[in-house]
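In response to the reviewer comment on reproducibility (Comment 2.3), we provide here a single inverse folding case reported in full, input and output, so that an independent group could reproduce the run without further information from us. The structure tokens appear first.
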């Protein structure tokens, strides 16, 4: 009886401690175990969402007008300008792979955000100087027919410094925000699912101001004044980030996440001739109390060759102390997780290609159309992009406030629908975007053919609204789903890299878009007339959009096939015996 009372008392104390303190390997700003009531969750993540709002305002203020700057100020032709934008966007979204690795392995997420924000700010300062310093200005005289080479060099140096800053800022900040929620606490886990939705809400609000207010200043006041605004916003966001320091929960860097994966591969190859054990419980694993960083994972039956790395061939302690000859089940499963995401990553690349069109050809279409709102006001071309942000805000709010509560009740799933289903639904909207874009461009070209002198300036820019709204609505499913998927399904030690994997979908999509444009230009030119002329009116973007719609539709079928067979991360709850088949949101069907 006394033993039972003692056990009940100790269980109660453990539960109270669990509620008071955060035991998920994180620390507070003094290096101690964080107090749940005064750190993390929304009190910390709201600082981070506010910073994302500021950074996205700066980024989209540059990105959406970049093709206009390159054609109007630097005087590149349409094809060269589109390639320059795609290369810059590609680098900007691929560098986070390096930034995420540095954050996870060496610097930690807070320090990486701090350093990269300073680099970002220096890039904005250089961009401002390229407009105001006399020797760096595009031209001395007006009208300017060709920009100075020094201006071109400094301009590209500045925007690529911003790329480097984004490379550390983007993956580290988003994963740092998600780190503020404890996965082992049921209430905080649900809040984390909402976090990605509200993160993107803040992102879209920043985008909205960037493509309206900032773009208006660029178009009606001065590019230089707009750069000063962006510089001030970024400096303010840096101050906000530092002010929130006492409220954050921090994860210490754990060294290169690639080393354990290499160890698993070496151990599996060296033991390839050993017989597979009849009982998977014989595979080597440490206890929960011995696990210093991250969580233990349950064994899965996929990629069984790698399981041989966890076979104990001798009982000697020397083998157990050498990670190159014996790996734990958790390390093996982490290797499987990384291999499992590769097919999904590849299947989402056509999404990245289609998204690349919104900041290049979609914007240039707007330039060629009637943008007059009234006799005294003309809408800046890049401001039409705000419709995509509005579409995404509506989509995220609808999903978070209406769809998820209903689906939670009907499916019993914590998320409502699983992550890959959410991504797949968004891809369907993307097909609709390309179809709408092709139809609108065909109509615009018909108007140009009837009246070549006036061109399509009699056609309202709001004909582009459907393609922007649809892509925005789809992004509320696909983009947010990709962020959550790559954060959640990578090993715990690779979460900044996980966000970088999501960004690399967009980056690789931009590079593939450039390669696709080059290939199609070469093929169609050989057959008589290129789809990509010197300007929009001599191009056939409608055919290009139809091609993208067909590619995306075919790829969606492949994606569904992969998603239905996907195995989600399987985390141990308390002890090895608590493993279970599948994940809470077991693959399911996209049909």
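Designed residues, in position order:
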């Amino acid at each position: 009886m006394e033993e039972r009372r003692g056990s009940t008392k100790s269980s109660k104390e453990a539960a109270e401690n669990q509620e008071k303190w955060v035991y998920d390997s994180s620390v507070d700003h003094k290096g101690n175990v964080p107090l749940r009531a005064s750190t993390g969750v929304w009190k910390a993540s709201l600082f981070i969402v506010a910073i994302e709002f500021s950074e996205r305002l700066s980024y989209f203020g540059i990105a959406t007008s970049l093709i206009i700057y390159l054609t109007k100020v630097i005087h590149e032709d349409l094809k060269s300008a589109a390639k320059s934008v795609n290369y810059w966007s590609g680098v900007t979204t691929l560098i986070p792979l390096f930034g995420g690795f540095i954050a996870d392995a060496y610097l930690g997420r807070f320090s990486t955000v701090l350093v990269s924000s300073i680099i970002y700010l220096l890039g904005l300062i250089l961009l401002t100087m390229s407009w105001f310093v006399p020797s760096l200005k595009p031209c001395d005289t007006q009208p300017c027919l060709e920009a100075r080479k020094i201006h071109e060099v400094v301009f590209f140096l500045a925007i690529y410094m911003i790329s480097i800053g984004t490379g550390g800022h983007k993956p580290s900040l988003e994963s740092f925000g998600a780190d503020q929620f404890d996965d082992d606490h049921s209430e905080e886990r649900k809040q984390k699912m909402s976090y990605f939705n509200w993160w993107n809400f803040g992102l879209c609000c920043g985008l909205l101001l960037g493509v309206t207010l900032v773009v208006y200043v660029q178009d009606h006041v001065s590019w230089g004044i707009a750069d000063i605004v962006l510089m001030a916003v970024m400096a303010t966001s840096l101050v906000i980030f530092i002010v929130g320091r006492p409220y954050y929960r921090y994860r210490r860097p754990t060294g290169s996440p690639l080393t354990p994966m290499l160890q698993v591969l070496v151990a599996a190859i060296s033991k390839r001739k050993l017989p597979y054990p009849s009982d998977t419980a014989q595979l080597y694993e440490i206890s929960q109390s011995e696990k210093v960083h991250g969580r233990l994972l349950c064994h899965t039956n996929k990629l069984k060759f790698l399981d041989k790395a966890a076979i104990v061939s001798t009982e000697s302690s020397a083998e157990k102390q050498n990670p190159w000859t014996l790996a734990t089940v958790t390390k093996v499963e982490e290797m499987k997780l990384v291999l499992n995401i590769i097919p999904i990553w590849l299947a989402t690349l056509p999404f990245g290609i289609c998204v690349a069109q919104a900041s290049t050809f979609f914007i240039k279409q707007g330039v060629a159309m009637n943008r007059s709102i009234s006799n005294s006001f003309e809408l800046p071309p890049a401001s039409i992009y705000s419709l995509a942000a509005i579409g995404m805000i509506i989509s995220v709010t609808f999903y978070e406030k209406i769809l998820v509560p209903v689906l939670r009740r009907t499916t019993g799933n914590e998320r409502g629908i699983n992550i890959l289903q959410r991504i797949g639904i968004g891809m369907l909207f993307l097909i609709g975007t390309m179809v709408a874009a092709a139809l609108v461009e065909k109509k615009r070209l018909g108007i140009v053919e009837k009246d070549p002198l006036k061109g399509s300036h009699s056609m309202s820019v709001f004909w582009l609204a459907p393609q922007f709204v649809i892509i925005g609505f789809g992004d509320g499913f696909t983009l947010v789903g990709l962020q959550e998927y790559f954060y959640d399904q990578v090993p715990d030690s690779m979460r900044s890299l996980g966000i970088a994997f999501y960004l690399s979908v967009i980056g690789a999509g931009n590079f593939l878009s450039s390669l696709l444009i080059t290939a199609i230009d070469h093929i169609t030119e050989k057959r008589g007339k290129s789809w990509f002329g010197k300007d929009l009116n001599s191009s056939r973007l409608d055919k290009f959009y139809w091609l993208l719609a067909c590619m995306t539709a075919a790829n969606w079928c492949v994606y569904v096939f992969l998603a239905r067979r996907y195995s989600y991360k399987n985390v141990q709850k308390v002890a090895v015996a608590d493993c279970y088949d599948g994940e809470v949101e077991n693959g399911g069907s996209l049909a």
